[in-house]
Amino acid sequence: MFWKKDNSEKKPGFFERLKQGLSKTRAGITGRLDQLILNKKLIDEDLLDELEEILYTSDLGVVAVQELIDLVRSGVSRKELDDPARLKQALKENMVSFLTSVKEKGGSPSPGQPMVIMVIGVNGVGKTTTIGKLACMFRDQGRKVMMVAADTFRAAAIEQLAIWGERAGAEVIKQAHGSDPSAVVFDAINAAVARGTDIVLIDTAGRIHTKVNLMDELQKIQRVTGRNLPGAPHQVWLVLDATTGQNAISQAEMFNKNIGITGIILTKLDGTAKGGIVVGISRQLKIPIVFIGIGEKMDDLRPFDANEFVEAIFA
User: Fold this and answer.
1) CA distance 308 to 289
2) CA 185/CA 232 separation, integer angstroms
3) From CA 109, how far away is CA 234, in angstroms rounded?
């Protein structure tokens, strides 16, 4: 995965910040699970019912919870899982399996062409800020980055992206407020090809009068991008706010149906009790989580690591 370049040398303390960001999630799952199995000698239906309730209230989503319960019940019936003390490890292993079994999506550019990433999501999820952080990360990896201000409907969006461009040392292609977003993208693709840009990040609108109008606009940007550079956009990343819990799954379903998502970026995981939504979204929609945000700092947006994430919940 191109976005995990140089990720092997993680900055010290990130895992501790991840654990802190997931502390409420850990209390909701691991803390309650420890209480559930305390002094229990066997896994019976009453215990499974209580386990199911714990998982449901941890925002894992209906699909993931049902599969986890079915796997536990199957292990019990085959006498492979007969000790309540092993429940935690079984859940941990299955969650990692859920998150790592999702196949990568999207494509890659032809040699010499830019990787075009279209970033979508409703207003308020931190989309423009996330794009700025992505630009900084890619620049740190030595890549030439361009940001495209295709959210021409929200007055502050263009200015906000321009500020991030200065911070990241990335070129920003923009036009006047109210311009046709597709025209901005068309010009940006031409400029990126001409200037040897490595990565193009397209900021898009999150609200245009109605849901139908928004989807029509995003589809138009997709079409124009593909006509100008065959195969683009190579990635379509949806930014979701983790604090919205189950509503995040509904948003993901809507965008995936109309646009087609290749990856999900989950922001605002710091301090929320809804970290389980990571597992729920990935399992239900079969879409990989590509980044998670655990704070406001520049390096608090990190490529997603399933093993590290689940370990932070059960640590």
Assistant:
1) 13
2) 11
3) 7
CA-nearest of 3, 294, 290, 308 to 136 is 3
DSSP 270-282: TT-S-TTHHHHHH
Reported residue count of the chain is: 315
Tell me the DSSP string of 167-178.
Answer: HHT-EEE---TT
Give per-residue pLDDT as tens, 42-79. 899 999 999 999 999 888 889 999 999 999 999 988 88
> Kind and range of the H or E element at 226?
helix 211-228
Do 199 and 138 meet the contact criterion of CB atoms below 8 Å apart? yes
Q: Helix 62-77 to helix 277-285 angle, to the nearest 10 degrees?
A: 90
pLDDT in tens, 150-195: 999 887 899 999 999 999 999 999 999 999 999 999 999 999 999 9
Cis peptide before 233 (omega within 30 of 0): yes
CA 186 distance to own-chain centroid: 26
Helix (H, G, I), strand (E, B) or coil at 302: strand
Q: Buried (b) or exposed (e) across 233-263, using 16+ Cβ within 10 A?
A: bbbbbbbbbbbbbeebbebbeebbebbebbb
**Token pair for 114:** 């830019």
Rounded CA separation 69/55 (Å)? 9
Q: pTM of whole model > 0.90? A: yes
Q: Using an 8 Å Cβ cutoff, are 203 and 149 in contact?
A: yes
Q: Which two tokens stand for residue 167?
A: 């911070």
Residue 89 · residue 71 · CB < 8 Å: no
The answer to whether 172 touches 149, Cβ cutoff 8 Å, is: yes
DSSP-derived letter for residue 231 is T
